[in-house]
Amino acid sequence: MADKLLFLTGKLALPSLQKVLDDMVSLPFDYQIHEIGVSVAALMTDKMIARRLKPADYAGVKEIIVPGRCRGDLVALSQQLGISVVRGPEEVKDLPLYFGRERKKPDLSQYDVNIFAEIVDAPERDIAGILARAEYYRASGADVIDIGCLPQESFPHMEDAIVALHEAGFKVSVDSLELEDLKRAGKAGADYLLSLTEETYHLAQEVDAIPILVPAEPGSLASLERAMEAMDKINRPWIADPILDPIHFGLTNSIVRYHQLRGTYPEADIMMGVGNLTELTDADTTGINALLFGIISELGINNVLATEVSPHARRAIKEADVSRRMMHAAKRESSLPRDLTSDLLVAHERRPFPDSAEDIATLASNIKDPNYRIKVAEQGIYMFNRDGLMHASDPFDFYPQLDLKDDTGHAFYLGAELAKAQVAWQLGKRYTQDEELLWGCATTVEEQDITQQKKQGTTMTTGRKCGTAE
Fold first, then answer.
1. Segment 30-81, tens digit of pLDDT
2. Do 288 and 372 sit in the same domain of this protein?
């Protein structure tokens, strides 16, 4: 006999939940639905469930599934009821994916690529400024802090910066075109030097730092190989970088060089600097990083140099961290890099519109109160309450139809929500009333928390009245 599951829901979501479960074929379980006596499923809490759910309601049930937005401690609730209580997906329409048709939550804790994050203007920063930038990069996922020297600009505090970074627990590389800068960095204890060539590799005999080797002649794989062979003769470790060139300045040929290098030296440590694409291409860096790290994963490149110079590349280090973890997980599982994380889906989403126009119309027909609900479907934005259903693609089209009775707080709230709904519809983002749009790694957790706190403060002061539909 198949196990039985109990789905808890609210009045408004009941028809939708029933339809989704009815439409799911070959279910590995039996089920029953219990409407717990709340209109909006998102308002369900652990304490409410404990008060309203009776033992007879879940007799013979193996597990209770509650809506994804149900608040409270479900572990404690499970112990109180004597039965497992778990959260389902946030959207009813995602239940088919929740039950076995979507892979288990992926392990993104592992990676096999080191990120060197460059502070490109280090000579212009004091020690405190260098440390602050390094901490930001570490929080974004960097493994090594690269101190970038500037041409023909003195850097008298470079040694102090290296010491300070080491004391703060960082590994340090120094990047310079001047051999004297690299010599100073090596003697000060830098872990890596960017970069040496077949003409300057001898510096590695004077210091302990590991050099990143580059061609002395731009684009020459032979020059790079001569530097690698010279380092092997003095029995010192190295990392090779054939140099990734910008688009229309040799990009394709440079990728071929990486492929050839890996084919000839299957065990070599290799670096790729991704900034020539992320910084020098007017396109969202999330997609560029995803593609590059796919190539990096296929070729087994184990070091990346990344930068955040251009304003449009302001999250490039974090994107690199997400990309390396995603590609590593996909490679480990021999799968496509899909449904592993949504952090790189900044402007779009895989499944942006869980509700159809028909679903929304059905929901609207059951509303009995004056509070406005807002939904987004492929056809546009929908707003509804007991007085009817409105549909538009421009929030201003709703204004003549609204009866706000000079309630400025409510008007402000609806304006803000409709603006979010419009952005979600235009870009293909998932919109949920009263919740922030999700922008992946384009925003930090701290920024999201601040926005939510400000929004909650506005809720308190406007005293808005709204209704979220589940």
1. 899 999 998 888 789 999 999 999 999 999 999 999 998 898 999 999 999 9
2. no
What is the average per-residue pLDDT within 225-252? 97
The pTM for the full model equals: 0.79
Alpha-carbon distance 377 to 383, whole Å? 11
- Is residue 288's pLDDT more than 90? yes
CATH number at residue 55: 3.40.50.11600
Query: What backbone phi and psi angles, to 5 degrees, belong to 67?
Result: -55, 150
The rounded Cα 67 to chain-centroid distance in angstroms is 24
Number of domains within the chain: 3
326 exposure class (CB count in 10 Å sphere: 0-12, 13-18, 19+): buried
CB 195 within 8 A of CB 220: no
pLDDT (average), residues 246-264 = 98
Cis peptide before 195 (omega within 30 of 0): yes
Structure tokens at 40: 């909006």
pLDDT tens sequence across 141-150: 999 999 999 9
DSSP string across 411-448:
HHHHHHHHHHHHHHHHHT----TTSPPP-GGGS-HHHH
Asked whether residue 338 is assigned to any structural domain, the reply reads no
Q: Are 49 and 34 in contact (CB under 8 A)?
A: no
Distance CA 173, CA 142 (A): 12
Q: Look at residues 230, 228, 233, 300 and name the one whose alpha carbon lies nearest to residue 267.
A: 300
Parallel/antiparallel/unpaired status of strands 373-377 and 380-385: antiparallel
CA gap 315, 441 in Å, rounded: 7
Residues 369 and 301 in one domain: no
pLDDT level of residue 467 (50, 70, 90 thresholds): very low
Co-location of 217 and 295 in the same domain? yes
